[in-house]
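User: New here, please read:
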Amino acid sequence: MCTLPLAPGIHWKQSYVPTTWAKRNISAVRRDIATYAEWPTNSSNPKLAVRGIFFDETPQQYDADALSYLQELTSFVKGLSGLGPDNFVCVTLLFHPSVICITARYSW
């Protein structure tokens, strides 16, 4: 789990899910996502809730299959309860080191 500082005093807890550059078995990725979404219920502790999913190891170049893969996973995340009110999705964006990267909310 990681916390994104959105602004001073405001943090967004989200869970890490690797995609292996959109090549990881999508059923395995869905299981990881579902596990995180079920934490508040399975633990009987709502404080374990996360507000979204951070997809790591995402492709660095456009690929139609990878886009479809990430769209399907994003739809899956958005359809779950247990991930907070917004079901936030974040992906890894890789840039040249001299480029400033700003984390943003994505709706594929």
